[in-house]
Amino acid sequence: MSDPARPPDPKRRRRILEAGMRLFSGLPYADVHMDAVAAAAGVAKPTLYRYFPTKEALFIEGLAWTLADLREAIGATREPRRDPAARVETAVALVLERVGRLSPALHAIENRGSECGERSRRVLREGFDGLRGALADLLRDGVAVGSFDVDDVDLAVMMMLGGIRMAAHGTGRRSPSPAAMAAFFLNGLRAGAMARPAAPRLGAVA
Predict the structure, then answer these.
(1) Mean pLDDT lowest for which of 52-61, 77-86, 103-112, 143-152?
(2) Rounded to whole angstroms, what are the CA distances from 134 to 76, 88, 115, 183?
(3) CA neighbor of 9 nearest in space, from 41, 39, 46, 51
(4) Dmax over Cα atoms in the chain, in whole Å?
(5) Above 60 in pLDDT, residue 204?
(6) Element housing 179 (H / E)
(7) DSSP string, 111-154
(8) Averaged pLDDT for residues 114-130
(9) Alpha-carbon distance 203 to 151, whole Å?
(10) CA distance 68 to 174
């Protein structure tokens, strides 16, 4: 039995979040049970409930943690020796994969009630605001070395994230590959641009 007076352990909390989000990413939301989360995290159920009193609370905090972790992962791609276009493709792949895997759970929790739905939407908005800054840094790095021609970085990032979110959050079709999405963002709608991935001029028009 856990001691309610014992202060929360950050490492244990992270272990629970990691276990929970693995399950939410791989199973329908309704099939994820707190017993399974406790077992996957290696904690007793009373300990789990001390950290997260409901499955909804676990998911929403896990969503915030996932998006913050994703922001850090995108920041880690800013290796100066890497090609700027490759950095953008890596960032697109990270967002598309991790948000896409949570899409069924996001749909489910948003349909459970106005309070849960609004909380998840708020967390998603705030998380994407953080991703916006990380992606903007990647684009500015590319502009600084002459790889990208971007008049409005903030607008470019907003369009990138909007496209990724729509692709990941369910559009009734199979999600495009990260390489295809990155190529589109980098080349825009220029005639023949998709056949010339080595010439990324984001935002340029014919």
Answers:
(1) 103-112
(2) 10, 11, 29, 19
(3) 51
(4) 67
(5) no
(6) helix 178-187
(7) TS-HHHHHHHHHHHHHHHHHHHHHHHHHHHHHHHTTS---S-HH
(8) 84
(9) 7
(10) 26
pLDDT tens digits along 159-188: 888 888 787 765 556 667 777 888 888 877
pTM exceeding 0.90? no
By three-state DSSP, how is residue 74 classified?
helix
Q: Please report which confidence band the pLDDT of residue 1 belongs to, taking 50, 70 and 90 as the band edges.
A: very low
Task: Select from 87, 105, 94, 89 the least CA-distant residue to 70.
Answer: 94
Q: Inter-axis angle of helices 178-187 and 84-110, to 10 degrees?
A: 120
How many whole angstroms separate alpha carbon 124 and alpha carbon 140?
Answer: 24
| Helix segments in 27-83, DSSP class H | 34-41, 45-51, 55-75
- Cβ atoms < 10 Å from Cβ of 147: 20
